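Here we describe the complex-level prediction in full. Unlike the single-chain runs in Section 2.1, the three entities below were treated as one system.
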Amino acid sequence: MSPALTELVSTAHSPATDPHLHVWGWEIPVYLFLGGFTAGIMILSGWALWKGRRNLRPHTTFALASSGLFVLALAAISLGMLALFLDLGHKLYVWRLYLTMEPWSPMSWGSWILLLVYPVLAAGVLLDPPKALLRRVPALEPVVGWMEGRPVVRHAVGFASIATGVALGIYTGILLSALGARPLWSSALLGPLFLVSGLSTAAAFAHWASPEPDERVQLAWLDNLFLTIELGLIVLLLVGLLTSTEAHAEAARLLLGGPFTAVFWVGVVFLGILLPLVIQTLAVTHHIVHTPIAPILVMAGGLALRFVIVSAGQASHWPRLL
Amino acid sequence: MARLGMVIDTRRCVGCMDCVVACKTENQTPEGMNRDWITSATSGRFPELRQTIQSERCNHCDRPPCVTCCPTGASHVHDWGGIVLVTKEECIGCKACLASCPYDARYVHPEGYADKCTFCVHRVEKGQDPACVSVCPTRCMHFGDLDDPHSAVSLLLAARAHHAVLPEAGTRPRIFYLE
Amino acid sequence: MSAVSRRRFLKITGAGAGLAATSALGPLPRLRSLGQPAEKGLRAVPTFCDLCFWKCNAIATVRDGVLWKIEGNPEDPLSRGRLCPRGTGGVGAHFDADRLRAPLLRAAVRGEERWTEVTWDEALGHVAEKLQRIKAEHGPEAVALFSHGLGGNFLKHTLRAYGVVNVAAPSFAQCRGPRDVGFELTFGEGIGSPERTDIRNARCLVLIGSHLGENMHNTQVQEFAEAVGGGATVIVADPRFSVAASKAKHYLPVKPGSDLALLLAWMNVLVREGLYDREYVAAHGFGFEAFAAEVQPFTPEWAYPETGIEPGLIRETAREMARHRPATLVHPGRHTSWYGDDAQRSRAIALLNALLGSWGRKGGFYQPASMDVPGYPYPPYPTSARGKADNPGRLYPFASEAITTGLRAATITGQPYPIKGWFVYATNLIEALPNEAETIEAVRKLDLLVVVDVVPSEIAGWADVVLPESTYLERYDDLNVELFREPFVGLRQPVVASPHDQKPNWWIARELALKLGLAAYYPWKTIEEYLDFRLQKAGMSLADLRRKGVVRGAPPAVYFEDGVRPDFPTPSRKIEFYSVPLRDAGFDPVPKYKRPAAGPPGSFRLLFGRAPVHTFSRTQTNPVLHQAMPENELWVNADVAARAEIRSGDRVRLRNQDGVVSNTVRVKATQAIRPDCVYMVHGFGHTAKGLRRALGKGASDSRLVTRYETDPLMGGTGMNVNFVTLEREA
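The structure predicted for the assembly as a whole is:
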């Protein structure tokens, strides 16, 4: 057996991978956040539609299943896609994504899922459209009318919204976990983690923005549930990495003593999950009033989670023995 | 079905970087970006030391994760030889392939597409060796069909102990280093 | 070859930004003469390389009119079709954005690097006028030529015709001189370049500090790999665990400066245990008994405290060498100017080889041959009564070539007579000669300093006149009639046009000669005429060489066992185990060891060496080679670094024993070097402003070489005698 490796040096590869991979900057974490948020909105509103919910106050912005929330989701996912587009190196060729379906490429799935998101969100808007929209585009009137008379349409849109939302929320995690060369991402829990985190940011926002007191309390309980599950998934993720190969354990150590420790435990876990969890629990048990502080922390924490996972993941790699 | 690969004799390699320079001039690679590089691994305590020098590049793996993850099919396996290539007109520059490669073999060309070693397919087509293999002054590099039991590369692998880089990553690399 | 039109650039004065360069550090645009159609397709042109002094024959390929790549000529006995990384990166020399572009006249104080661009006519006229003035006032001996490489041949011719007697190359006193003298004193002949070492057939190869593989003389490395691949035993003695050491069966981490003690101990063992080649020594040796008596006290036990190598290992390696003789080659090295006792150390290497019987034998040293290509018939050069100035009174009695540092000293002191003009071709004297301060002092005494170079090197920065030469890819040159295992003639011819107003050395030399009224020495009008004339006399033709690049002669017998007559041009006509000439001159007839002076406590001895992608200080702006190695690193022992809380990648400055401080340099903390020394690759830390790509990158070892030990036998300058401390850069 050869003695322990003491020095391993390499001449230059390229700026993208020296000293370690860093090809994805702010654009990808921002997209992941906005995508997760949109997915959460789609699932929560979709569930409301599925349950047959109608708005008590028509056209109320930002209540669950309201057209306002669906429009916000449209804006969010569009911003997210803009960020994705900005990240591309060969922008003029982006249309190549839509000439093929690569069954083994989660990024290919994603490009088609994102396409599908738009008509689903549009259908959601049309279920309860703002008057201003109908005035501008009178051609929509018959469509809206057709939809309104059929409860099965509400159910279908709700179902589609949930399904597309789940796909949107989970595929990005699979995309990263499929990149086996970066051990930090190498966990099947990454998809569910991103999904639950997206749900928690959406629930946090809806809790904050909803005009209906009952709904707000409901959303606070839901958000606490999502935050708790998210915390559990983070712990399981780390346990899974630490008990896997040395490469995975070393990757986990980036967050447990390594350079990403502070921002992860303070930014993502404490400020992004634990503190809002406490605040919101106190609020729903009527010890304090509902404040926007917790939702803001949850959303910031969701963004921070994406930043840490993307950056630390690029810093993780298989250790060389030879 | 031909599977082209390389066998490199670390006993003879001196790490002179001729392979790196030849690749650069042959393929006119962009400034600061290299399709191949030299790694040097030293172990022990002075003066009981051992050093292994290796010329490395894309391993044109049998199971290339860079091909699997590509959303447009730009990253693909060539018709013959198992050479992994990128069709730059189909590449959107998403960089998933860079992230998927355990060897950090790819780079982003200044024009925006992903790029890497091509095994000098333009030379191999004409019956020549890749530029790095042709230039090596210590003649430590060999290129050929790993599926042909009588090729130089197959005979060397049969005769001498060898290893690949990061075999545990599971990509089945096709470049082997003789010990 | 297309003529580049003479452009009159703007006169640039003041604002010392340097040259009239505007382009970014990228490849130069392809320049086409007006009226020439655009070239399409591939064109292959054979030539020989100029990135170092090996002169491998190469084939350059042009694609659609643009220089594409350079590969080895398969017919070349030196490269056997494969160039080294510098040769492969030779295209970068053509595309180097920092190249000199036009003749320059100094516009301010010497050394400030401020220039006026002028025409060739003006520049050469100025040079000729100054040369004539120096001749009138001081005589032509007052002009010295420092020249390195075959490209200096025509300039040598012009200046000899003018009356120059002082012609020197730094390769003697600063590099291989000690080795050649040590071997001359023993075998009657030097080693030469390419070295007459039969590495590929050696069964045991001993390297004393020689770092083949990092030192990239092509044939040597190719043969080294062949020997290693063939299972030859390698023994390396080096304070640093080099690449060559990593291929060795035995690595001896000798204390720097103690190599001679190790060599003496090896010889002691071979003699004592009767392991030397008795027949060979009896047949060819002179003074063996006296020699045996002299090495008697130098036992491995005696050598142990000096070298740090255990007696058991010394004995084991000596026996290993004997086991494989006569195919045991103790490599003579190349750059051997280390401690000031270098000629005697090299003589010890020669003696060790003699004991093993390797000189003239397969696997040892072969007898090289060359083709018979007569020179051009010129009128005789003027003679001089004064003689040379580099070695007055034969102070260094065994110097077989001119001593560069001797000429420098003569320039400073004016003894034996004043030197008022320096002509410098292709050697960066500021980096090549030890103690930069003396070189600058000498330059300040000159009436004229002319530098012919390809890039604006440090020495060009001090010149009065800078003449830009075309790179080897853009010019014809003198024939390479090589002395090698297989004789051949190589041709250099233009592949592409010079991008600016650069000219080939033959043109510069000829134009200067005409301005000096020496037309009689240039009966040929074009270089083609000159080349064809010489080749025809040898039964070849220029047309033939232009097509093939290299023509080989019949390989002769090279070993004694194949019929080469053992002939040793020494006074005794035998191998001199005991040297009477040395004794008579007051030196040790058999080498003796003296421990080199230690450095101040807490300091490290500064050692330097080569990288395979660079040549001295001349390639750092080559865009291709720069990418391969943009800066050098300082090798520091890992334990030393840990104690000093320095890590790899940290930047430090070096301060030497005279208080000279270096540029910042990256640290490489490594197990692969002794704790008492540090090491870096030579040629970095450039200060010349025109070398923009290389400016300030890495540190300069030569700047820290302020002390040197002069070899009393031949005037070589031992430069491994400087000590440094490290200063952390915040």
